[in-house]
Amino acid sequence: MRRKDESKKPMISDFINAFYFEHDKVPSVREIVNGTGIPLSTVHRYLVDMQEKGELSYNGYRSARTKEMSEVSPIHGIAVLGTVACGPGQEEEQRFVETIRMPETLVEKGDYFALIAKGESMIGAGIFPRDYVFVKRQQTANEGDLVIALFDGKNNLKKLVRKHASGFRSRLPEM
Question: For position 55, what pLDDT does the model report?
């Protein structure tokens, strides 16, 4: 067996980590080959050797995970879909702005998106202009929850409060 060039190990594991953190998935062996320029049989040989030495886990076929990947919680990509008014309502407009990567430990299960706060009426709740507002998409809300309210085609970020004993709910600015 040929002698291994030890400089290729960090090249391979660095590529695996960079790929994982950029794409939120483990690279295939073919992607490792394309990303490092190291031939397929050599990549496979190094992955097997690194697996045997406990430097990474490799299933012998497609998937290789480094120790660094195991130490980091999974990442969720949350789409930023425009702005939300904090003050006078604004026309509802949904447009993709960017994706924010959030560790799974900070986001409970559910369907999330983010909006950028626009206006100053929620400063009392700690939401300042240009802050990201993370929203869990759901059909119900509790008294005191911050909600994205849609009224007459305009959206607004408000605190949900009970206005009348009849159950009518109103959204008021946070002062």
Answer: 87
